[in-house]
Amino acid sequence: MLQSGHEALPLRICFFGDSMVNGTGDDTALGWVGRACAAARRAGRDLTFYNLGIRGDTSEDIHARWEYETKGRLPPGHDGGLVFCFGANDACTGEDGAPRVSADRAVANAEAILVAAMARRPVLMVGPFPIGEPITDARVAALSRRFAALCDRLGLAFLPVIDIVLASEAWRKEVAAGDGAHPNEQGYALIADAFTRWPAWRAWIEGGSLSEKPLERA
Amino acid sequence: MLQSGHEALPLRICFFGDSMVNGTGDDTALGWVGRACAAARRAGRDLTFYNLGIRGDTSEDIHARWEYETKGRLPPGHDGGLVFCFGANDACTGEDGAPRVSADRAVANAEAILVAAMARRPVLMVGPFPIGEPITDARVAALSRRFAALCDRLGLAFLPVIDIVLASEAWRKEVAAGDGAHPNEQGYALIADAFTRWPAWRAWIEGGSLSEKPLERA
After folding, report:
1. Contact B29 A48 (CB under 8 A)
2. What SS3 string covers chain B?
């Protein structure tokens, strides 16, 4: 399955995000990140992953911690990349009725994170998840479009997930049967499938090296 | 399966350690941590886990980062605990022929970590893993005994794993078929089973609350 002519070096991937990256609510303890990484290993790629999703994290929180938490996990001399996925908690309503983090601020945080990350490693971005609450989800949809435009401007691959989630009856049922915000196995499997089929991710898994210098713009 | 009369609050658990905590080499992407947490959820406990194992980490590395990385993951107002497991990389031979971290220093690091952690949250400790190299493994065995004595003195539960690993033919075969140091599914399942049966862990999963104040000494 790997491209011939490449020496497929072991990869180390950091996934930064919120509860949807953590896989909160998944009885299999895999989430979409674990499922996608298991699929990559089954496809023959030697991959180590670090799941750095934290429940409740906004773009502010991730901006504050991603560099510190990357340092020991992607040491020099090892191929690796960074995947980011946030925005749902930014869009949630805070105590004053406004979003916890404004859309302008979330986009500024995303740009600061992505530009700094791209200077060091190959980077991918996954869009924010809806949480099943109409006002928040309208903000998530708007934020997803703005993140898509930002990534386009930066020459970065972006995978929107909001429409996949909103179209899924299985997701909706699992959220209702769970804590009201997070799905279970079927929901996370849906995102893992979309991520695994994503050409930008497949290029990492099927390609040769993710060196410390960023890849050419796709 | 939960004790009657308890309101089983959702738990958040941080697992700090090295590649053996990360689950490096496991094609299922679960490791022993993911397997044990999935089993806890199947047993009816609502649990969120953070796998904070980093390849190559010694007790020095974990001492430097565990407080920072715990902060956002175990916020006030949420029940949670800390599980530590390290020592294999301390025992590995460094460039000068000596262990990367001396046994005395590793024990001092462990005490500093555990005492500070116990002041904030319930804590468990799992012993260091052997890596299949005789000189290192003799050091791991000695370190495991010293960590056990330390935990005994601190009133902390300690689960040694070295004998489980060394007695396992499946582990040895998976290490040989893999990268020479890490097992695959069967090896990690073996540790997950031992951890899941461990009374100290079962008390967390079957009990009621892991409050911010440490539990009584068992």
Report:
1. no
2. CCCCCCCCCCEEEEEEECHHHHCCCCCCCCHHHHHHHHHHHHCCCCEEEEEEECCCCCHHHHHHHHHHHHHCCCCCCCEEEEEEECCHHHHCECCCCCECCCHHHHHHHHHHHHHHHHCCCCEEEECCCCCCCHHHHHHHHHHHHHHHHHHHHHCCCEECCHHHHHCCHHHHHHHHHCCCCCCCHHHHHHHHHHHHHCHHHHHHHHCCCCCCCCCCCC
Q: Is A185 on the interface with B (CB under 8 A)?
A: no
How many angstroms away from the CA of B153 is the closest CA of chain A?
Answer: 31
How does the average pLDDT of chain B come out, rounded? 93
Cα A130 to the chain's mean position, in Å?
A: 14
Answer yes or no: are the C-beta atoms of B58 and B86 closer than 8 Å: yes
Which pLDDT band, with edges at 50, 70 and 90, does A144 fall under? very high
Predicted structure pTM score: 0.94
The C-alpha atoms of residue A203 and residue B101 are separated, in whole angstroms, by: 39
Q: Which of B73, B78, B179, B182 to mutate to test the interface with A (most CBs of A within 10 A)?
A: B73
The 3-state DSSP class for residue A18 equals coil
Contact A38 B29 (CB under 8 A): yes
pLDDT of residue B89: 98
Q: What DSSP element (H or E) covers A16? A: strand A11-17
Q: Chain-wide mean pLDDT for chain A? A: 93
Q: Which of A23, A34, A37, A15 is nearest to A205 (CA)?
A: A37
Residues in A touching B30 (Cβ below 8 Å):
29-30, 34
CA-to-CA distance for A141 and A151, rounded, in angstroms?
15
**Complex-level ipTM:** 0.93
pLDDT of residue B208: 63
Mean pLDDT of the B174-198 span: 97
Contact A116, A67 (CB under 8 A): yes
Residue A179 has pLDDT above 80, yes or no: yes
Instruction: Say if CB B66 and CB B72 are below 8 A apart.
Output: no
